[in-house]
UniProtKB/TrEMBL annotation, chain A:
PANTHER family: CHEMOTAXIS PROTEIN (PTHR24422:SF8), CHEMOTAXIS PROTEIN METHYLTRANSFERASE (PTHR24422). Residues 1-275 form the CheR-type methyltransferase domain. It holds the Pfam family CheR. It comes from Pedobacter puniceum. This is Protein-glutamate O-methyltransferase CheR. GO terms for biological process: methylation. InterPro entries: Bact_Chemotaxis_MeTrfase (IPR050903), CheR_C (IPR022642), CheR_MeTrfase (IPR000780), CheR_N (IPR022641), SAM-dependent_MTases_sf (IPR029063). GO terms for molecular function: S-adenosylmethionine-dependent methyltransferase activity. Coiled coil: none annotated. Keywords: Methyltransferase, Transferase.
UniProtKB/TrEMBL annotation, chain B:
It is an enzyme of class 3 (hydrolase). Keywords: Chemotaxis, Hydrolase. GO terms for molecular function: phosphorelay response regulator activity; protein-glutamate methylesterase activity. It catalyses: [protein]-L-glutamate 5-O-methyl ester + H2O = L-glutamyl-[protein] + methanol + H(+). Pfam families: CheB_methylest. GO terms for biological process: chemotaxis. Residues 1-181 form the CheB-type methylesterase domain. PROSITE patterns: CHEB. InterPro entries: CheB_C, Sig_transdc_resp-reg_Me-estase. It comes from Pedobacter puniceum. This is protein-glutamate methylesterase. Coiled coil: none annotated. The active site is at S10, H37, D130. Its EC number is 3.1.1.61.
Amino acid sequence: MIEPDLIKDEELESLLTEIAELYGYDFTQYSKASIKRRVNRICLIDKFTSFAELRYQLIKQHSYLQRFIEEITVNVTEMFRDPSFYKALREQVLPQLGTYPLIRIWLAGCSTGEEVYSVAILAKEAGLMHKILLYATDINPSVLEKARNGIFPISQMKLYSENYILSGGQRNFSEYYAANYDFARFNDDLKEKMIFATHNLVSDRSFNEFQLIICRNVLIYFDKDLQAKVFKLFDDSLEHLGFLGLGSKETIRFSKLDKHYHQISTEKIWRKQKEEQRRFKTDFT
Amino acid sequence: METIFIIGGSAGSLKVLLEVLPQLHHHLKFPIIIVLHRKGYADSQLSFLLSTKTNLKVVEPDDKDILEPGYIYIAPPDYHLLIESDKTISLDFSEKLNFSRPSIDVTFSSAAKVFKENTFAILLSGANADGVAGLNHVKANNGTTLVQNPVTAEVNYMPLQAITQSKIDFVLNPDEIAAFINKLDVP
Ligand SMILES: C[S@@+](CC[C@H](N)C(=O)[O-])C[C@H]1O[C@@H](n2cnc3c(N)ncnc32)[C@H](O)[C@@H]1O
């Protein structure tokens, strides 16, 4: 069943502008086709019969904003999603990072945290746990709460274990959690180096310098201009020779930064060039 | 570039595509999008397989790629494929629809909103109800709806659903599909 179309383009534009002005959450540069589906969806779920009703609720009832944000952002995620990406992290990125005294990694748009626990497992297996810091951020505080708990449905563990093996994992995946009725509770030693914080990629600034930034399946929800802005934010937050990992269908090809980064594998992982290399490249391209 | 031709299919559709693609004109003036249900990961092989059957360029697009005439776009596994009003592609990892991601409904409807009466959408063989609501959206936007003749379908559930629940303009046998597409090319 497809959602009936309750909302016209202009109405959506003006609602998003209003929300931005009123609350400071700016969704005006999200990809139109998918945000429209999301807004339609929330109208169905929350049983608004007209767009005006949704708008009234949002403007008058400030507490509704949180629910709106939760529903229009897509939180779907998995552990070791796209195992070949994690394999490349394992084989090509972590060995490089291992040479640093302190490794700072930023996972932007981490949702409920499955990705963060996956990276922690890689770090542990690479013997880097003692000198790593995993900064995990998202716009949505309620997914971060789940991420902090590290408790995921047991029904997913079979898939995650398969993904883990495909990513090059050689241990028994079940070592990493305690099974408890319907849930798998991930071990505390994985959590020790995780720092969770809300961060809005649209409006918040760079807060540190990292050697690796992972932002997967978040930029697909942004239009090209907003993507460019976020790439700038990542560039400002990435050390020279740092790495940027994106979702399997995301690319920096459309961004000006493209020429300062080179893709290190067939996976969506780029490495920031050194200053001299950057100048060289700019002069000759 | 005004026109879009979208092909949706599930079980039993690959065979049809392998028959249709070799017969397509080599310089189509519009893009084709193929949304096929497939089992989860593993096969970016599909684009490769299809690319060996045609001189048209077959790609599994990245997010925000611009639709180009003469290209065949394959919806990547595990993403919904949407069309923006500037004719770029948006990929979306939201919930499955009709147990499917990519969902045919999502692409049909989203394309219909942008390409309106110049949307052509065909539903092929399959055991799923995905695509039918999308065809209705295509029709509501004055586009053209087509369906594989259920008699020729390996699994006739999907085409039969389409015929009983949507206004279908053309029912085609596999060997008529390429001819139909090629004819669109000659304005
Ligand atoms: C589809 S999930 C991706 C999760 C994970 N990175 C993965 O690839 O599996 C997208 C996440 O991006 C977050 N998000 C959306 N807009 C954001 C913004 N402006 N700033 C930060 N996070 C955002 C959502 O809350 C959601 O958790």
